[in-house]
Design a protein that fits this description.
Elements (H helix, E strand, L loop, with lengths): L1 H27 L6 E5 L5 E4 L2 E2 L11 E7 L22 E6 L5 H11 L3 E5 L14 H4 L6 E4 L1 H10 L7 E5 L6 H37 L3 H4 L4 E3 L21 E4 L5 E3 H11 L17 H11 L12 H55 L1
Membrane topology: Single-pass type I membrane protein
Pathway: Protein modification; protein ubiquitination
Enzyme class: transferase
Length: 370
């Protein structure tokens, strides 16, 4: 057990080391983009095309200004002569190196160790620009200076007019384009966030679906509460609506609350794995009114309307609603009739009172005349 844990930790450490080295190498393999501006002692300038190396650090945004020195030895495959000492210790020197005889990373590393702040490697017998690269991760991790590659014609012009001995200086100016990691890192962050959100959504949806499916199924303890009838000839049941087989003597039938009957082997998987409703009338199967969980789930599901909701409600519910509506209508009619009767009685009473007053008045007039 301890051995397996130790091997697991060792494997994790190795994976972490490999990923770290690969990431470091990837970031260091990003190109150092620059152009070369050269100035001689008369302050005349000239621009040279170059191709950045695929290793080393990037140039500062304001560029790198320095004095150009020819490498000794020219190929820089071994330690080279350091730059000359000046009174101003902040002076920057850039070395010009010839191609061939060893790898590019070795040349740039020797220039860095000699004290140069940048390296320019030039082609031989060609003006083609070559992308300098390396596969040696250990050497790449040690390189901290930028480097560029130029053609032979550009190198000859630099040697003739713009070296430190000729009173000239050069400036390595970076191109104002965002490096790859400025695009890659935000992209990876956005993709990672999207993946996390998708995973969270899928997990939530899965949990909700499982909970809904489990709530819509009949538990085994609830299934046992449903009555079982052993079929006999002459019973009112004849054919199982699921398997479409006729019932035979001795078949065990599961009787649902809606009075529909099915083979136990047919309807039990339906109720426990698919839906706790009658396959024919879609009425909810609630084995016991005392089962609080079943009542709660049933009431919650009745409020949910889906594509599986039956168009016709159970007869008992329809009858109850019809009876309630009829009772309400009759009570309303009785109340209306009673109010009409009361109004008629009031009108009759008022008319009789008026007639009595007229009769008394006529009698009084006759007596007065007599």
């Amino acid at each position: 057990m301890l051995l397996s844990i130790g091997m697991l930790m060792l494997s994790a450490t190795q994976v972490y080391t490999i990923l770290t080295v690969q990431l470091f190498a990837f970031l260091n393999l990003l190109p150092v983009e620059a152009d070369i501006l050269a100035y001689n002692f008369e302050n005349a300038s000239q621009t040279f095309d170059d191709l950045p190396a695929r290793f080393g650090y990037r140039l500062p945004a304001e560029g790198l200004k320095g004095f150009l020195i020819n490498s000794k030895p020219e190929n820089a495959c071994e330690p080279i002569v350091p730059p000359p000492l000046k009174d101003n210790s902040s002076s920057t020197f850039i070395v010009l190196i010839r191609r061939f005889d060893c790898n590019f990373d070795i040349k740039v590393l020797n220039a860095q160790r000699a004290g140069y702040k940048a390296a320019i490697v030039h082609n031989v017998d060609s003006d083609d620009l070559i992308g300098m690269g390396s596969n040696d991760i250990d050497v790449l991790k040690k390189i901290d200076i930028p480097s560029v590659f130029i053609g032979e014609s550009s190198a000859n012009s630099l040697k003739d007019e713009f070296t430190y001995e000729k009173g000239g200086h050069i400036i390595l100016v970076p191109e104002f384009s965002l490096p790859l990691e400025y695009y890659l890192i935000p992209f990876l962050i956005i993709v990672g966030i999207c993946l996390i959100l998708i995973v969270i959504f899928m997990i939530t949806k899965f949990v909700q679906d499982r909970h809904r499916a489990r709530r819509s199924r009949l538990r085994k303890d609830q299934l046992k509460k449903l009555p079982i009838h052993k079929f006999k000839k002459g019973d009112e049941y004849d054919v199982c609506a699921i398997c479409l087989d006729e019932y035979e003597d001795g078949d065990k039938l599961r009787i649902l609350p809606c009075s529909h009957a099915y083979h136990c082997k047919c309807v039990d998987p339906w109720l426990t794995k698919t839906k706790k409703t009658c396959p024919v009338c879609k009425q909810k199967v609630v084995p016991s009114q005392g089962d609080s969980d079943s009542d709660t789930d049933s009431s919650q599901e009745e409020n949910e309307v889906s594509e599986h909701t039956p168009l016709l409600r159970p007869l008992a519910a329809v009858s109850a609603q019809s009876f309630g509506a009829l009772s309400e209508s009759r009570s309303h009619q009785n109340m209306t009739e009673s109010s009409d009767y009361e109004e008629d009685d009031n009108e009759d009473t008022e008319s009789s009172d008026a007639e009595n007053e007229i009769n008394e008045h006529s009698k009084y007039c006759l007596i007065f005349r007599g």
